[in-house]
Amino acid sequence: MTYVPFLTLGLGLGLGLLAAGSLQIGNDVTLARQIDLLFGTPAEEFADFAFVYAQLPRMVMAVMVGAMLGLVGSLMQQLTQNSLTSPLTLGTSSGAWLALIILNVWFPDNAADLQALVAMVGAMSALLLVITIAGPRNMTGLPLVLAGMVVNILLGALATAIILLNEQYAQNVFIWGAGDLTQNGWEWVQWLWPRLTVSVLILLFAPRVLTLMRLGHQGAAARGLNVIPMFILLIGLGLWLVAASITAVGVISFIGLLTPNIARAVGARTPRTELLVSMFLGSLLLLLTDSAALWLSQWTTDALPSGTTAAAIGAPALIWFARRKLKAQDQLSIKLPPSSDRLATATLPVLGLMIIGLAALSLTYHPAESGASFALPGDYQWALRWPRLLTALCAGVGLALAGTILQRLIYNPLASPDILGISAGATFALVASSIFLGNSIFAAGSLTAFIGSMAVLAVILLLGRRHQFAPSSMILIGIAVSALIEALVQFALARGTEDSYSIISWLAGSTYRVTPEKALLLMAVVAALTAFTLATSRWLTLISAGRKFASARGLNVQLTSVILLGVVALLCGSVTATMGPVAFIGLLAPHMAVMLGAKVVKSQLTVAALVGGCLMVFADWLGQVMLYPMQIAAGTLVSVIGGSYFLLLLIRGRSHT
Could you tell me which InterPro entries the record lists for this protein (predicted)? Predict the structure, then answer.
């Protein structure tokens, strides 16, 4: 379009002004002195050295990394024809992060030389896994983003487990997770810029390929383009840029997601124009974000990492774009496993016996390095084990009930507290209370977690109504909230305080630190809410038949929905406050109940609660004995099991489309 040169000129001018402005934040050097230093005058005072070796390289790094993230985001979105793809939503950032943790923990001697290469291998592996799960035909739809989100959860759980099992080796990787542009010289700038020169290849050769791919894969192939090899080549170049950037400054989310959408909104229509404008916008957005982080750091005791600030800005922006961009075809094809026609008479007794058996195993099985044995627990062992057992059982029951209520209430088989971000809301409130108010995360009350859960529920209700609580809308809200939580958590870890490992061990979802008082309180809350849910199961039965049908039968649907959502928030808040966030139980247990034939509301609630209890008790016991004397948190194991099941659902849905 005729105004594109003026657009790029304006962006370039704005970038220059913003770069100059960012150098003035917290700067004691006069403008005249700054100009002299820029033209080679030797630094003499401390302020001069801070300007030349801290502020200048930080500004340059922000411009470079922002441009690359914007370029790669545009490249990914054009290749997939999907406005919601980015290194964040495709799992590549988590793949690179996990690979860097593995390198630093188990191969520290090679870390300095292989960081960028290993990060790229991790990012590429994650992307290949996501594409395999979603399928090549779903590159333009939401299943690709959803698969990326689940892979993010799985890789994050594995990274957490490795850090907890290797605390003494993982301290130096925290800064990567937070995404910090702080520089102490020009070394990282000099290391990074040669590795970013491959971006020239993208700018030279990608536009023609992207133009042809707008015709569709068949149309592009008919015009002589080898679609798959070119797709792999361009994605590989893009992931190299992402991996090099992550190695230098850590994980910075949302830049690559937002800038291409903004570029198209301001008039970028051709592939080349979108790539260029996205680069300028990426630099502008990251520089603006970093300037905000610097300015806020002037008023706080802690320096705010740029990655945390980017997530705080990007999460609401993702929700906004999702509301504007989602269309009717942006739906998910989910094929639930086959189910029995009716609930067998023996199902409930068998599940009850399984819980009793797992409880007995947990109490009497004594792992030891010299060999395991079975014996009744002594007083000391009993005092340690029964709170853990009771917490795991109640957490499984509570989250299973919460998932069943949500799935029935909003007619969405993918609804669960973790995927929708309700558990993440409780986590956000508790972690924020620990960071900003100085409260111990283990001493925080259920009220704080309940407030966080209710806040996310309110957001879901307000934003989800436009799309009738469709899976697409709900899941994207969950992605945004979860990314914001992750940024806050990484900020807590990057601070390097004594609470860092306490927070990450709590986030793993462990029963290790649960006190008898907290276990009994959780039992009381879950028992009361379970009794209430079963007593009012008629409400869910009527709502499941349709809101108009329920209203015609005299049910106040709006009030009932608020009450039931309050029950969900109480369950999630209580469990999260007691043992930390636990993923996928709220998704897995209701599905397994239906598979067993529990299709009536009351029977589904009962069976799901028993299944959830079984899963959590088993995961807690397995985590204690698998790598004895080390322990794996129950939440980590459940994330792996539940995440694998969720990915299986996506694959089944793809095979039936």
Answer: ABC_BtuC-like (IPR037294), ABC_transptr_permease_BtuC (IPR000522)
Q: What is the pLDDT of residue 532?
A: 95
Residue 167 backbone phi and psi in degrees, to 5: -55, -40
Q: Are 235 and 85 in contact (CB under 8 A)?
A: no
Euclidean distance between CA atoms 438 and 428, whole angstroms: 14
Q: In whole angstroms, give the CA distance from residue 412 to residue 269.
A: 36
Question: CA triplet 448, 450, 452: central angle to 5 degrees?
Answer: 75
Instruction: Please state, in angstroms and as integers, the Cα–Cα distance from residue 448 to each residue in 366, 426, 429, 568, following that order.
Output: 36, 7, 6, 15
φ, ψ for residue 266 (rounded to 5)? Answer: -95, 5
Tokens read off for 532? 């209430």
Helix orientation angle between 601-625 and 537-544, rounded to the nearest 10 degrees: 110
Which residues, 6+ apart, have CB-to-CB distance to 621 below 8 Å? 358, 361, 362, 365
> Which residues make Cβ contacts (< 8 Å) with residue 218, sequence separation at least 6?
none
| Torsion over CA: 196, 97, 305, 55 (sign) | negative
The DSSP code sequence of 158-170 is HHHHHHHHTHHHH
* Tokens of residue 527, six digits: 């028992």
Cβ neighbours of residue 113 closer than 8 Å, sequence gap 6 or more? none
Query: How many residues are listed for the chain in this entry?
Result: 657
Q: Which residues of 354-383 are buried (b: 16+ CB within 10 A; e: fewer)?
A: bbeebbeebbeebeeeeeeeeeebeeeeee
What is the per-residue pLDDT across 332-386, written as a single tens digit (0 to 9) for each? Answer: 445 556 667 788 888 899 999 999 998 888 888 877 766 667 778 778 788 888 9
Whole-angstrom Cα Rg for the chain: 26
Is the bond preceding residue 108 a cis peptide, omega within 30 degrees?
A: no
- List of the chain residues with pLDDT < 50: 1-2, 327-333
Quick check: helix, strand or coil at residue 373? strand
* CA triple 197-17-24, angle to 5 deg: 100
- Answer whether 0.70 is exceeded by the pTM: yes
Contact 187, 500 (CB under 8 A): no
SS3 99: helix
Q: List domains and CATH numbers for the chain.
A: 26-320 (1.10.3470.10), 346-654 (1.10.3470.10)
Q: What's the CA gap between 306 and 419, in Å, rounded?
A: 26
Cα 217 to Cα 626: distance, rounded to the nearest angstrom = 47
DSSP secondary structure string for all residues of 499-514:
HHHHHHHHHT---TT-
